[in-house]
């Protein structure tokens, strides 16, 4: 008899059949070796590295156990067999030693295995640190098929996913490669109740359960955090990148901060990358398809100095033509909203001893492409009550000043077509991300001690056509951002088993953002921004028309802000095992922050208007002053603040496969130091407070083929940081919009996550949510423009923007053996997947304007292909947004000088996808 694969599955081999007739009393494997070889107990990392070696050795070892020394025909070989056993045990010990070293190298990131099904719940909430150990990449076939078998290390030890009492959704690295998931916007199509808008790097916003979007103000942080390899991103624009060489992504819901890192009020996206391995490995991943799509990823890992220093390197390139046509054809080659990104990561893992490791990561990515290509949606001539709006964006462009442009056959603008614009600026912007981090781990004194030191730099250089027309109105428009951050974290975690296990730490962060808003006006700006009365007077004479031209031509309007944050925190969390079935988790965090800001607003350049006289001069100055406002320069101002996060989380295992839990937690996000944009006066924002309740059930059924997780939540937010409408001190009777605090918001709902292994190779999944997100007290909301109300509106009781009530993703994964031949000793298989993402109707405009309504929609992805069962080679035909659904993710309101504009989701693309690993 021999072992066909690591484990105890016996297969009769030719040459050993005669043993059956000899009535030999078979001997079982020793307990030690059986436990080592048994696939149900062997660590996945050890299994991956030693499977090939053990296939032959295990056969010899099994024979040694069966052929007892008291039989004469075996006696002659007893010494050889004993030596073989010792050799095998030694090799297994060496493999285990390497595995232990690698696990220690990534702190809490040991042995995580994630399900290949989309956005599976990963109940590891305490575990922002559920990262994967450096291991061989698993193939789609190798991925666990059921949530019941998924292992996480949420509390610095290996635990079954279903046994950690807070809901998390996970996207596996294998699924990301298979489905071509590369951005935070893609994550939202796999995780219910996650919403992402990515107009550009600065306007990227992330929401959980309908809330958390950033208004594009660097003075405040997003309420939903993002962390990559234990390094926090203070600026949400840092997420504008491709995520490649990923082990898995977690989405944690609810207040975070009692375990590690920075605190966040509503949740966290935790990205875990592949770590270096001492075992050599390489992969190639390529995609080519319509819209001139070309994507490539390559990576390699292995030993620099065996047992001491390992490396991992990866690079990516992502190019694809856009899906929005610019009718100003001489300006644009191809379509706008294209993709043009590349980047790479280099890592080193140093393991000088069994107890010490150091992981160094250096990374950079750059995207140079058109951004903020938001087609004009509508520009109504009347308000909702039928009253004429008077001067509109369309009526300004209809002025005779633009007749020459109009008569040339060149369209001035496009309104109402989601796939067309007419703009005279090419709009190529740049987003650049750079970073370096070092994580050191030491195990000793019954604890694991971790240090994470990091520096991140992010740059956004916009080039937008602010007037969204072919007229020469605005030549430069946008806000340049340079964000630098330094962070240091020290933490410890108990390793000895007992009634209580615990961890704690210290966290420090310095963040410095420089933002520069610039608007440079062109030849047609004066004619466009003049009121009807001003335009009619000036356009009547040649001198007046020159005054129109000089009123704004060459004027630069500039505003600078420099928000700085210094954050220091201490945190801790303890798990008290009251009984074998009952556990109480308690967590506490105290954060001290100093926030400050300084800035200025100024205008310069343009004509000095010395040749303009009389009423022409009065009108020209009025046009200019209305656009540029008042110059001001503010000294640095700021404040200090203390904030607390806490967690009470009891859980109980009803059976080995059914667990229920409850949690109540609180969090606070610091206020923001900012200025009145019109006057430069100090106008700071108060803190944001959250109280969150969760009640959940995690269960596995039918011999763990079916997993069903249900979570109910109620979240109350007071002081949510958002845009308000307040009286304008500079203009009597008028209002302005500024960052402030919404008094009350409530989120209530239920989340369901299921996966079912129907048969071998067939997996069905359904993840969905119902979310009731409303304002409970919001009397100073900005009014929708059609309300014809210059003041504030009461939106109490209304559903939040960007908060569909129902979201879901569901689908099927299927693998079928081809049933003929062998290829490189591995069988071939057909495989396919189909995933549908659904969102119910919602309003995607911040002021709940009627123009922001988006009907319910589906986005369907799928693929079919052929590959080896071990996942070494895969060739697929893959489609994203197969039915080319056109859907909005964000809508900006119309005004007297702009039409409403919309940000649309990615259009359909498809192609051939090849993957190989060695």
Structure, explained:
There is one protein chain. The protein is globular and about 100 Å long. The protein has a 23-stranded antiparallel sheet that branches. It has a six-stranded mixed sheet with strand order 3-6-11-12-9-10. The N terminus is likely disordered. With 918 residues, the chain is mainly beta. The longest helix is centred in the N-terminal third of the chain and has 28 residues. The chain has three domains: 100 residues, no CATH class; 154 residues, Beta Complex (Ferric Hydroxamate Uptake Protein, Chain A, domain 1), CATH 2.170.130.10; 624 residues, Maltoporin, Chain A (Beta Barrel), CATH 2.40.170. α3 runs antiparallel to α5 and α12 packs parallel to α13.
Keywords:
13 helices, Maltoporin, Chain A, mainly beta, Ferric Hydroxamate Uptake Protein, Chain A, domain 1, 918 residues, six-stranded mixed β-sheet
Query: Structural class given helices, strands, pairing?
Result: mainly beta
Number of helices: 13
CATH homologous superfamily of the largest domain - what is it? TonB-dependent receptor, beta-barrel domain
Domains (count): 3
CATH class of the largest domain: Mainly Beta
CATH topology of the largest domain: Maltoporin, Chain A
* Main sheet attributes: strand count, strand direction, barrel closure: 23 strands, antiparallel
> How would you state the average pLDDT, rounded?
84
Q: Do you know the CATH architecture of the largest domain? A: Beta Barrel
């Amino acid at each position: 008899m021999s072992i066909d694969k690591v484990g105890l599955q016996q297969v009769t081999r030719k040459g050993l059949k005669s043993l059956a007739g000899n009535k030999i009393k078979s001997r079982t494997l020793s307990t030690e070796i059986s436990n080592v070889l048994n696939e149900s107990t062997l660590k996945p990392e050890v299994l991956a590295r030693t499977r090939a070696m053990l296939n032959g050795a295990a056969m010899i070892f099994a024979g040694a156990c069966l052929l007892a020394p008291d039989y004469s025909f075996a006696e002659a070989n007893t010494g050889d067999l004993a030596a073989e056993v010792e050799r095998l045990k030694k090799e297994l010990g060496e493999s285990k030693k390497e595995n232990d070293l690698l696990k220690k190298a990534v702190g809490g990131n040991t042995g995580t295995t994630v399900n290949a099904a989309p956005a599976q719940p990963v109940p590891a909430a305490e575990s922002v640190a559920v990262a994967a150990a450096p291991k061989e990449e698993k193939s789609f076939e190798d991925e666990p098929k059921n949530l019941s078998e998924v292992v996480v290390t949420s509390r610095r030890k290996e635990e079954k996913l279903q046994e950690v009492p807070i809901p998390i959704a996970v996207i596996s690295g294998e699924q990301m490669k298979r489905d071509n998931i590369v951005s935070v916007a893609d994550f939202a199509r796999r995780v219910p109740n996650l919403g992402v808008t990515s107009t550009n790097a600065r306007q990227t916003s992330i929401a959980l359960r309908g809330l958390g979007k950033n208004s594009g103000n660097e003075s405040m942080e997003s309420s939903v955090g993002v962390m990559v390899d234990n390094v926090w991103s203070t600026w949400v624009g840092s997420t504008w990148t491709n995520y490649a060489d990923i082990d898995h992504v977690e989405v944690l819901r609810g207040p975070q901060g009692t375990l590690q890192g920075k605190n966040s009020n509503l949740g966290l996206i935790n990205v875990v990358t592949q770590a270096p391995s001492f075992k050599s490995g390489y992969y190639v991943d390529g995609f080519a398809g319509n819209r001139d799509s070309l994507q490539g990823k390559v990576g390699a890992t292995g030993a620099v100095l065996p047992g001491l220093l390992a490396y991992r390197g990866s690079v990516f390139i992502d190019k694809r033509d856009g899906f929005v046509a610019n009718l100003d054809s001489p300006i644009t080659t191809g379509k706008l909203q294209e993709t043009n990104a590349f980047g790479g990561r280099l890592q080193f893992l140093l393991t000088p001893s069994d107890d010490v490791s150091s992981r160094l990561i250096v990374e950079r990515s750059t995207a140079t492409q058109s951004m903020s290509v938001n087609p004009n949606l509508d520009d109504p001539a009347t308000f909702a009550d039928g009253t004429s709006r008077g001067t509109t964006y369309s009526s300004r462009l209809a002025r005779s000043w633009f007749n020459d442009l109009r008569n040339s056959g060149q369209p001035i603008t496009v309104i109402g077509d989601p796939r067309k614009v007419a703009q005279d600026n090419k709009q190529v912007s740049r987003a650049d991300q750079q970073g370096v981090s070092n994580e050191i781990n030491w195990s000793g004194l019954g604890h694991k001690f971790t240090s994470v030191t990091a520096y991140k730099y992010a740059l956004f250089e916009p080039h937008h056509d602010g007037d969204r027309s072919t007229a020469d109105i605005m030549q430069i428009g946008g806000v340049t951002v340079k964000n630098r951050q330094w962070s240091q974290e020290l933490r410890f975690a108990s390793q000895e088993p007992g009634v209580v296990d615990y961890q704690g730490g210290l966290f420090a962060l310095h963040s410095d953002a420089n933002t520069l808003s610039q608007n440079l006006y062109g030849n047609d700006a004066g004619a466009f921004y003049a009121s009807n009365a001003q335009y009619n007077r000036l356009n009547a004479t040649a001198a007046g028309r020159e005054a129109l031209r000089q009123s704004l031509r060459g004027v630069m309007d500039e505003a600078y802000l420099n928000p700085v944050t210094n954050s220091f925190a201490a945190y801790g969390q303890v798990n008290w095992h009251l009984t074998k079935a009952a556990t109480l988790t308690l967590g506490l965090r105290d954060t001290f922050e100093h926030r400050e800001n300084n800035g200025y607003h100024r205008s310069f350049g343009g004509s000095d208007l010395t040749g303009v006289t009389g009423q022409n001069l009065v009108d020209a100055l009025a046009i200019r002053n209305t656009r540029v406002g008042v110059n001001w320069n503010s000294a640095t101002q700021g404040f200090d603040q203390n904030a607390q996060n806490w967690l009470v989380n009891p859980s109980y295992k009803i059976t080995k496969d059914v667990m229920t839990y409850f949690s109540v937690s609180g969090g606070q996000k610091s206020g923001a130091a900012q200025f009145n944009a019109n006057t430069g006066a100090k106008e700071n924002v108060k803190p944001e407070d959250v109280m969150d309740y969760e009640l959940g059930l995690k269960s596995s059924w039918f011999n763990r083929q079916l997993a069903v997780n249900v979570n109910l939540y109620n979240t109350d937010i007071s002081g949510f940081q958002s845009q308000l409408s307040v009286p304008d001190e500079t203009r009597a009777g008028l209002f302005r919009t500024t960052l402030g605090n919404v008094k009350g918001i409530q989120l209530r709902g239920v989340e369901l996550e299921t996966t079912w292994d129907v048969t071998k190779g067939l997996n069905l999944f359904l993840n969905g949510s119902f979310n009731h997100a409303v304002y409970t007290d919001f009397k100073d909301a900005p009014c929708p423009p059609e309300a014809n109300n210059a003041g504030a509106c009461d939106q109490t009781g209304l559903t939040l923007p960007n908060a569909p009530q129902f979201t879901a993703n569901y689908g099927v994964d299927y693998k079928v053996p081809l049933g003929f031949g062998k290829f490189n000793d591995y069988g071939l298989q057909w495989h396919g997947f189909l995933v549908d993402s659904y969102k119910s109707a919602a309003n995607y405009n911040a002021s709940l304007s009627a123009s922001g309504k988006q009907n319910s929609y589906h986005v369907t992805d799928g693929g079919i292909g052929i590959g080896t069962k071990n996942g070494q080679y895969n060739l697929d035909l893959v489609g994203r947004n197969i039915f080319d659904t056109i859907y909005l993710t964000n809508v900006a309101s119309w005004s007297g000088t702009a039409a409403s504009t919309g940000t649309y989701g990615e259009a359909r693309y498809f192609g051939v996808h090849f993957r190989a690993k060695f």
